[in-house]
Amino acid sequence: MSLTRDFFIALSKNQLLNNGAKKWGLKLGASKVVAGTDINSMMKSVKELNANGIGATIDNLGEFVYSKEEALEAKASILETLEAIQQHGVTAHMSIKLTQVGLDVDYKFCLENMREIVAAAANYAIFINIDMEDYSHLQQTLDILHALLEDYDNVGTVIQSYLYRSEKDLENLQNVRLRLVKGAYKELSEVSYQSKQDIDMNYLKLIKLRLQQPAFTSIATHDHHIIDAVKKFAKENSIPRDRFEFQMLYGFRSDMQKELAEEGYAFTTYVPFGQDWYGYYMRRLAERPQNINLALKSLVSK
Ligand code: FDA
Fold first, then answer.
1. Please, what are the domains in the chain?
2. Which of 3, 224, 234, 259 has minimal CB crowding within 10 Å?
3. d(Cα 143, Cα 140) in Å, to the nearest integer?
């Protein structure tokens, strides 16, 4: 199981395959979990979600950005997507990875790009969520978040329960809108829990701490055990439903997504789109190897 996970995480980091995949269009079953390669197809999916009472957090996919030129291109696409959200009047915000807008190129350059994006989003009253990437980017991500929070309040980030330091980070971000997740990358035992049991235990602990803090929380998981425990905790502790929401990825447990929305829980689906689907898809296969069936079926049915 963990060998399979390592294999797909390694594949997700293969730049050659990533570059090739941009030219293929959505392949290997990726169209089940990626909402198209352009704004129009993505908007169609977002409108369908909205019609079921579900909001969207849109990820304009982008990987392996190591030059200013690529980062500026990514920024332009993100600004275009913000404009489309406004024009179509959909219930949606955006999720952005800092490496996509230049964190691996230069810290200040990335911060300036984010300032432009968060300012444009603030004009439209759109929230920007900074996705959390691997541990090597974590401190810089929090530094950029804090710099942006000095001028804007429409920005937040993600806390990963597999990291030992997350409880402390939660404490320092009590008034900031946050998404809580288990964590998607492969991290060393020096900094992170390794077993599913420890990660799940810490996840529930952090969720319970967080739900007693004032700011809005997104609980992003497909794990029904966690979801049931959150519902129970919220009920027993009279946590108002407008203080938190559930989030899942596009194409995952769609029936449960609708059910939770129908039960009256706030719900947002993470909607990735774009030509740069390969790395995102490989990380999803790493998390849930059962999805390999999707990839294999799509190979033989073409
Ligand atoms: P996990 O994969 O541990 O599954 C637990 C159990 O749930 C399974 O054993 C199974 O019973 C059930 N289950 C899970 N998926 C299922 C499915 N598709 N069908 C049926 N049953 C299923 N990570 C990160 O590091 N940074 C980030 O910014 C984000 N952002 C993010 C946003 C959103 C909206 C989501 C949903 C997730 C992320 N993640 C993330 C990814 C996250 O860290 C984590 O890797 C995945 O969500 C997988 O963990 P789960 O909590 O879903 O359960």
1. 35-276 (3.20.20.220)
2. 3
3. 5
- Prediction pTM value: 0.92
Which atom of ligand 1 is nearest the CA belonging to 200? Answer: 3
Q: How many residues does the chain have?
A: 302
pLDDT of 88-147, one tens digit each? 999 999 999 999 999 999 999 999 999 999 999 999 999 999 999 999 999 999 999 999
Q: Model ipTM?
A: 0.98
Q: Where are the alpha helices (DSSP H) in the chain?
A: 2-12, 15-24, 39-51, 68-88, 107-123, 138-149, 166-172, 196-211, 224-236, 254-262, 278-287, 292-300
At 31-76, the pLDDT tens digits run: 888 999 899 999 999 999 999 999 999 999 987 788 999 999 999 9
Q: Which residue from 59, 128, 221 has its CB within 8 A of the most atoms of ligand 1, so it is best to mutate?
A: 221
For ligand 1, atom 32, the nearest C-alpha belongs to 220
Question: Ligand 1: distance of its center to the CA of 184 in Å?
Answer: 8
Looking at 177, 179, 210, 283, which residue is catalytic? Answer: 179
Sequence-distant (6+) residues with CB within 8 A of 219 are 179, 180, 207, 226, 227, 230, 244, 245, 246, 247
The whole-angstrom separation of Cα 191 and Cα 176 is 24
Distance 223 CA to ligand 1 centre (A): 7
Radius of gyration, CA atoms only, the chain = 18
